[in-house]
Amino acid sequence: MTTSSEADAHPSEQPKLSKKAAKKEEAKLEKLRRRLEASSAVSGAAEEEEEEDPLAANYGEVPLPDLQSKEEVGEPYTEVGALGEGMQGRSVLVRGRAQAIRAVGKKMAFVVVRERGFTVQCVVTEQEGSVSRQMVKFVASLNRESIVDVRGTLTVPSSPIKGASQQVEIQVHKLHCVSKAFPTLPINLEGAARSEAEIEKALQAGEQLVRVNQDTRLNFRVLDIRTPANQGIFGIQSQVGNIFRQFLLSEGFIEIHTPKLIAGSSEGGSAVFKLDYKGRPACLAQSPQLHKQMSICGDFGRVFEIGPVFRAEDSYTHRHLCEFTGLDVEMEIKKHYFEMGLDFYVQVMDIVDQLFVAMFDSLNASCKKELEAIGRQYPFEPLKYLRKTLWLTFQEGVQMLKDAGVEIDPLGDLNTEVERKLGQLVLEKYGTEFYILHRYPLAIRPFYTMPCYDNRASSNSFDVFIRGKLLGHSTCQQTFSD
Amino acid sequence: MTTSSEADAHPSEQPKLSKKAAKKEEAKLEKLRRRLEASSAVSGAAEEEEEEDPLAANYGEVPLPDLQSKEEVGEPYTEVGALGEGMQGRSVLVRGRAQAIRAVGKKMAFVVVRERGFTVQCVVTEQEGSVSRQMVKFVASLNRESIVDVRGTLTVPSSPIKGASQQVEIQVHKLHCVSKAFPTLPINLEGAARSEAEIEKALQAGEQLVRVNQDTRLNFRVLDIRTPANQGIFGIQSQVGNIFRQFLLSEGFIEIHTPKLIAGSSEGGSAVFKLDYKGRPACLAQSPQLHKQMSICGDFGRVFEIGPVFRAEDSYTHRHLCEFTGLDVEMEIKKHYFEMGLDFYVQVMDIVDQLFVAMFDSLNASCKKELEAIGRQYPFEPLKYLRKTLWLTFQEGVQMLKDAGVEIDPLGDLNTEVERKLGQLVLEKYGTEFYILHRYPLAIRPFYTMPCYDNRASSNSFDVFIRGKLLGHSTCQQTFSD
């Protein structure tokens, strides 16, 4: 709501969420598309009339039949992200999106070409025998986000390039548009990739930059996911799943795929989506919990699943979603989560915390570029975590809070605010933002939770915390033979 | 239906599918459970009266409080699958299920203990100072599938052991029942693990063995998945996903998780499950197709997904399921699937077939035990496949069929029978059961399929075949800028 004035100022970037507005937006796009088609037909004709260009083969739009796989093995493309100073003087062919286009008079134009989050500056300069003035005009009139094939020579400029990720330039010989974008898109990628800090800084300098709002981003998701930060987020999401799996597979777990269409609800606590299954009532699984437990009863020993979880909840916090991807683990424990694992030197509890440590380590090591891309738009500090994860008992947590003047019920649950406070205290005392709290009060855990042998008010269960927020929870239970 | 007489002969192993029968079954189990509890209480009391056993600590049922995590670090367990001749003379502790129990007089009993598909024979012999006659009696009266802790010394018998996977025996000193199974289970694991061939062979020798039917297996899935073959199948399923992922990640793909709750149907062809999404109509995704394509438009380049797919189909073939786990791949191709990939020496088409070759190779190498376990119950021949996968054009396939006297429409689709026939012909001519058929007639592929440049009746699309059956299909298409 605070940006409603901006929304009016930049109507194409700030559509309303309502259905009516969405329809209007669609109609507008359709109108633009038609106008574009009409104008390109006209301008094409006009240009031909204007002047015949002997260098016309070096640029233009590639007609569909020419894209149709005529060359079975063609000239190889170089990825934009792979362009570097070592390739100076080399002739390259790249394909990417025209992210920004800028004409300098009639003889020169710059195009920033982006491929998977990496960008390179391409320079088109009028030159006898290769680049005509019409070609410069064609390039200057490209629609942003169009896909272009660029052929040219790689040069290294004397001063650093600000507007692109690669520190080289392509001196363009040929440029063809492979797929033309609408002349006006609801999201400008440069705007969508901007950080709050940049917008604030510009504002202080008297310049008002466009802020792309969350609703616009969600309505035009296919455009928004092209930003370097979003490319990074999806890359990291993929990597998180990969590390999670590799770690668990190496510890003797197998991956299962439990049914999502089930006859009853899987957990009591959360609302369920109901549907008709060929005349019989069915539900969408709110958790793989029961099927994981069946796998353990079925002698699988150690299982995990990465899959969708459905909850028909009406909550509006960032911790509640109707559909999300759950990372679920279930394992047989012989006596206690402090017992030694299969290989005699890893405690079962270590599997839990080492899983996370492996994930943090691996993301820091293999996703540097992704983390940097995210950090440019959404600055963050690296996570503080210990090599040997801190395990605190619930009682110790309660005591730490008490010492800090926060009195809570030692047999009750922690609320969000108290969790955040405890996170602060743990960071101050132990220097970690990642820790595990165990021996929760029995009364606040599910019915199947195993009580502690030395105190029946406590239970063999634990929660995993990151930056004062619950990351996951676990419960030990009694499993039965059949 | 052909086994209905058997069902009567072995009522506990062959329950009917009807609800009434299922209820009856449940009631019966409940009755048995009560009887068991009563009898064990009585017999326990009777035994005490009978004779006080000074060795009573060496056996018996472990009461729940004793299981409750008292020892934080206890004696380590050895996995049954790890027991081998090299450990002769060593004292071991194993936990597993009592799969088969056999008493030999009053002084000796054998128990086959199973853990995750591996089995070991345990021998309990009356012995002064350690094993009492009451202990032998206790062991002989164990319910099958109960979980037991067995302590004993490992010996290597002079002749091979037939009834267990491990070629060693445990001379038992202590045996405790950790979790007691019902005295009669609807599935006997030895019966459930039996191959058709064994049953036939026994029949010819005049012995009628129990055949556990598919409906019984599905009704008591948690028992059936304990068979070595099913343990193997789930292990391989896990590994298939793993290889698929590792191969694609190494080729620059990222893993995505697309929404399963969507506003409209994802593909025209198949029926859809509808549900109410907070007052608005929603569907379960029949395919990640559209979201994969949006990922490509969103500049991800190469994506894949392993996740549930929902189809409200009424077909009753083994190739149709209402819910299954789909392995989906989508990639940007610059011109043709014959073009060179990112690294300049792998053709895009190679990614497709090498994905499968990597999977076959890796399963053969890393899942030997699982494949053997499956083969014992369901014998099969190893798959014949080539290092360099055979790619045939649709036209070549039609010609091969024609030469073999099978006339089909060169612009039509192949039916299941013709596909099987072509599989045979390919195996005879090329010695492979795995091949790819490409350049399908355009008319029978989805609307977005790219026609071939040299023949508009054909298309840039292919299907992957294994043993004459369709394994997957692919379509090249034109993607747009926005």
From TrEMBL, chains A, B:
MF (Gene Ontology): aspartate-tRNA ligase activity; ATP binding
Localization: Cytoplasm
Reaction equation(s) it catalyzes: tRNA(Asp) + L-aspartate + ATP = L-aspartyl-tRNA(Asp) + AMP + diphosphate
Stretches for region Disordered: 1-75
Highest taxon of the lineage: Eukaryota
Gene3D superfamilies per UniProt: Bira Bifunctional Protein, Domain 2, Nucleic acid-binding proteins
GO CC, alphabetical: cytoplasm
Ribonucleoprotein in keyword set: no
Family to which this protein belongs: Belongs to the class-II aminoacyl-tRNA synthetase family. Type 2 subfamily.
PANTHER family membership: ASPARTATE--TRNA LIGASE, CYTOPLASMIC (PTHR43450:SF1), ASPARTYL-TRNA SYNTHETASE (PTHR43450)
The protein's name: aspartate--tRNA ligase
Organism from which the protein derives: Eucalyptus globulus
